[in-house]
Amino acid sequence: MKKLLTAGAAAIALMAGSAAWAEIRIAHVYDITGALEAYAKQSHIGLMMGLEYATGGTMEINGEKIVVIEKDTQLDPAVGRAMLAEAYGDDNAHIAVGGVGSGVALAMLPVAEEYERIFVVEPAVADSITGEAWNRYIFRTGRNSSQDAISNAVALGGANVKIATLAQDYAFGRDGVAAFREALAPTGAEMVHEEYVPTDTTDFTAAAERIFNAMGKVEGDKKLFIIWAGGGNPMGKINAMDPGRHGVQITTGGNIIAALTAYKELPGLEGATYYYYEIPQNPVNEWFVKEHFARHNGPPDFFTAGGMSAGIAIVEAIKKAGGVEDTEALIAAMEGMEWETPKGKMIFRAEDHQALQSMYHFRTEVQDGKDYGVPVLVRELGIEDMDIPIRNKR
User: Fold this and answer.
1) Whole-prediction pTM value?
2) Torsions phi, psi for 186 (to 5 deg)
3) pLDDT 10s per residue in the chain (394 long)?
4) Residues in contact with 182: Cβ distance below 8 Å, sequence separation at least 6, in sequence order
C-alpha cells in the first residue's frame, strides 16, 4: 500500500508539474497608478489584444496556455525593480513587458539581466534604455527618443529655422531634447534655447517668458517644440499667452487622443507621430480598429497600438524559438526578427534590440464630429527614411 501511495503521489506531482510547465507566464509590470495611468491602461488593453490576435483568439501557443500577471510599479523606480524581481522570482514569469515611465523602465533593466530573462520595454522612450543602460535581455517594441527626434526634425527642420524646446526634467525629456538637437543639425535648423521644468508643472508662465526672451534675440522661422508626457497641458497654456506676438509657432509630436484636444486650437500644426488610428493602412490595423471600436466604444490610441505590437512580437518570438524555457533561444529568435503590427512591419535591430518602425509626418486639421485636432498624414517616414543611431556601447 505504501508503494502504491508513493507511486500515486509521484504521479500527482508529475501531473501538477506538467500543468505548471504547460503555462507561458507573461508579466506586465507597468505604471497602473500614477501620473501615466492613462498610458498604462492603453498599453495593457493593447497587449491583451496583441496576444489574442497573434494566437488566433486561443491565447495558447503550441497547446500551452498564456497566463498574464499584472504588477503595479506605481511610477516609482524602486517599486518597479521590486515588482519585476517578484515577477521573475516568485511568479516564474518567462517574459516581462512594461515600463511606461522611462525612469521606472531604466531602474528595471538590471533585474532582467540578473534573472537572465527577456524584458520587452513598452512604451518607455528614453534612448538610454537601448543605449548605455541596455543589456542583451532587453528588447523594445516602443519607439525611442531618436525615432521621435529624427522624424520631427525631418518634419520641422530647414534652413533659417530657429527652435526652442520645452521638456520635462527627467530621462524622457532630456534624452528627447538631446536626440532632437542631434537630428536637427543636418537639416540646417538651429536649436537656440532649451527649457526644462519639473514633471508636475502646471504653471508655465516663467518658462514661457524665458523662451520668448531667448527667441526675441534671433531672426528666422521661430518654433517652440514641446516634448511632454502626462498632464499639465503646456501647449494649451503657452498658446494662451499668444506666442505669435513673439513670432513663435508652437510645434510638437503626436500624443494620445485626449491630449489632441489642445491641438484643435492650432490647426496646421505640424510634427511627427508614432500612431493615429486612421493613418496606417494594413490588415492588422484594420482588425485592431474594428475590434477596439466594438469592445471599447472608441478607437485605439497611441499606446494601445504599442501594447498590441508588443503582444504580437512576444507570440511570434515564442513560436520561432519553440517555447519559453530557453532564454538564449528566445534572444536568437528575436534578434533581427520581423513581424507585422498595426503600424506595419517592425524589425528588432540585432545590435541593440530596438524596434525599427515607421513614423508619420502629420498636419492637424479641425474636422466635424471630432473635438480634437486630427493628425492628418503628410507622409510616412519608413524604416529606410530614418538613420537611427546605435547608442549601445557594449
Assistant:
1) 0.88
2) -70, -15
3) 433 344 444 444 444 444 445 899 999 999 999 989 999 999 999 999 999 999 999 999 999 999 999 999 999 999 999 999 999 999 999 999 999 999 999 999 999 999 999 999 999 999 999 999 999 999 999 999 899 989 999 999 999 999 999 999 998 899 889 999 999 999 999 999 999 999 999 999 999 999 999 999 999 999 999 999 888 889 989 999 999 999 999 999 999 999 999 899 999 999 999 999 999 999 999 999 999 999 999 999 999 999 999 999 999 999 999 999 999 999 999 999 999 999 999 999 999 999 999 999 999 999 999 999 999 999 999 999 999 999 887 6
4) 146, 149, 389
Map residue 126 onto helix, strand or coil: coil
Q: How far apart are CA 126 and CA 175, in angstroms?
A: 6
Q: Which of 353, 310, 346 is nearest to 129 (CA)?
A: 353
Q: Give φ, ψ of 59 to 5 degrees.
A: 55, 35
Q: Are 193 and 214 in contact (CB under 8 A)?
A: yes
In three-state secondary structure terms, 369 is coil
- Tell me the pairing of strands 138-140 and 270-273: unpaired
Domains of the chain and any CATH numbers = 24-143+281-357 (3.40.50.2300), 146-273+360-385 (3.40.50.2300)
**Do the Cβ atoms of 363 and 168 come closer than 8 Å?**
no
Please give the Cα distance from 71 to 386 (Å, whole number). 35
| DSSP letters for 299-324 | ---HHHHHHHHHHHHHHHHHHHHTSS
- In order of 61, 108, 387, the CA distances from 317 in angstroms are 11, 21, 25
